[in-house]
Amino acid sequence: xVRRPGRGHRxxxxxxxxxxxxxxxxxxxxxxxxxDSVLGGSGVREALRxxxxxxxxxxxxxxxxxRSVRERLRQARNAGRMDGTLEEVRELLDRAVExxxxxxxxxxxxxxxxxxxELDALPEDTAGAVRALKEYDWRSPEARQAxxxxxxxLRREVLDSSFASMKxxxxxxxxxxMQAVKDMVADLSALVDAHNRGEDTDERxxxxxxxxxxxxxxxxxxxxxxxxxxxxxxAAQERMMAGLSPDQRAELADLMAQTMQDMGxxxxxxxxxxxxxxxxxxxxxxxxxQVPDGEQSLGLGDATSAVAELADLEALSNQLSQGYAxxxxxxxxxxxxxxxxxxxxxxxxxxxxxxERELERQGYLNRSDGRLELSPKAVRRLGxxxxxxxxxxxDATGRGExxxxxAGAAGELTGSSREWxxxxxxxxxxxxxxxxxxxxxxxxxxRRAHPTTPGTTAARRVRIAVEDFExxxxxxxxxxxVALLVDLSYSMALxxxxxxxxxxxxxxxxxxxxxxxxxxxxxxxFSSTAQVLRPETLAELSVDTLQGTNLQHGLIxxxxxxxxxxxxxxxxxxxxxxxxTAHLEDDGTPFFCWPPMPETIARxxxxxxxxxxxxxxxxxxxxxxxxxxxxxxxxxxxxxGGRVFTPDSERLGEYVVADxxxxxxxxxxx
Length: 670
Description:
Blueprint lengths: L1 E2 L5 E2 L17 H12 L4 H11 L7 H16 L6 H21 L5 H11 L5 H7 L8 H22 L3 H4 L5 H22 L5 H11 L10 H20 L3 H18 L2 H14 L20 H22 L12 H8 L1 H19 L3 E4 L2 E4 L1 H22 L13 E9 L10 H12 L28 E7 L3 E8 L2 H5 L3 H18 L4 E7 L3 E4 L1 H6 L10 H14 L4 E8 L5 E3 L5 E3 L5 H16 L3 E6 L4 H14 L3 E2 L6 H18 L1
Helix pairs in contact: 1-2, 1-17, 3-14, 4-7, 6-12, 7-12, 7-14, 9-10, 9-13, 11-13, 11-14, 15-16, 17-20, 17-25, 20-25, 22-23
């Protein structure tokens, strides 16, 4: 759709891209779930990670996907033993030697005895025996056939361990087929070398696939995809060899070296191995890892495939765990995931990725310097959620009386009115509002006339605009300046009260800023020292692992805040679970001691008295019934004319919000 000035709209054919008629991505439940975790005490990154682990809207999360991968990993470990090729070579070798002995036994010739002696002198190890019989002139056709089967088996298995599905491609291969393999390996080495030198290899890759594509049934679409597949298999081959016993490893390595030498590929394959290492140095080359250990014997190629699958599943499980530094959903390999769990798993992952993208695109999460933070939009929603829960508690207990429908009665009527401004709570002056609208639109022609009788004028609709509104002017009562001091010491986390304290602070901030804009609020967190907290900071904040409950410093910051609002009624609310154990020295450095020193108590009480002299009430919400704390806060509130509350942590928000609302009603009553 194209819009031109003065010409309305012009419509055309949709030519792809996002569906313009698709409903917007609904993030409401996702934001609320993140909010639940944040209000419960988690940080934003931890809350998002937890949501991605759980999944939502019928989609599997990372944890369930990882459990499925771990089950596939368990099955892959039971795939079979890795010495299958070695066992098969031994069986064929025993069959060949036994058939040859049967053919030589009835022959009285001395040459038959020499051949028997040669067979008796064969090395004990399989690789040595195969090498010793390379030039042997077999008498028995059956023995010759068995030995040729060994050669064919080794060629196919050795190449299959480097190139997947090569075993099937070389079934009953002739001389021409082996030459095609040699040409392919030579061209492949040259292609990987060119890629490692940074050359443009796109055309060269296409030519390579046109000529040798039959050896790569997985049909790679780029040189990077081809190299990645080959390098992973080469690393798996090394890992498979490392998982054998020393004797098995030595015998199999000898057999593989012989076979490569016989095919004329020894130097070319060694060069290719080095080139693949250079192209993908990040792979676990030469490292010993998990290897299959089942009852069934696996050939060399199948064993390499099994080890490669184990390595892929291990990597995928690690990616889905997201338990490493800098983890991201972008790290999860979709190809590995589809191979392990099928296309539905990829769709589940795509849904998680879309949710993560939309949280940022729609402005709920911000990423700054690699850190994930809640946006002000999300913080407002969290505050509203916390407040809604508190009001639900108040409704259930009947303690709140929080209806603010009379909020407009903010003072005595003066008899005059003024224009409405955002945040005004005064009642509307309806007469003046309608009059303003009539005067503003008097010169406009009637847009919609109703049928009238002769001699009458057409009826007119009055449309009221924002600028028409006026409110009844009142003698404004004093607003409140509320300082909420929240304990951030580590004991809050140990007692499980930190989540309730965070939720309460956000609920009270939301209540004051949205429903009582004439009031001011500041949230102050205190542990070894105190700090002023913005709502965005509070949402991300975790409790301080430093020791100390420095209420004195928190009260100093509260007093500075109240001084900036000297015309407002001062209110100080303190949420804590312990006696003061820290204070500021004269030079401003924090000092901690447990049990509390008399100097810490004295400095804190002195600061309480300074706050009280400003006219502030200090109400304390004690979250621990420990007698020392209860005695201290009772003494504190007596000095400041406040009260002590000892709520359960689950009802902390209910108590704090109800106390704030009760204080407002008290001001109005005066």
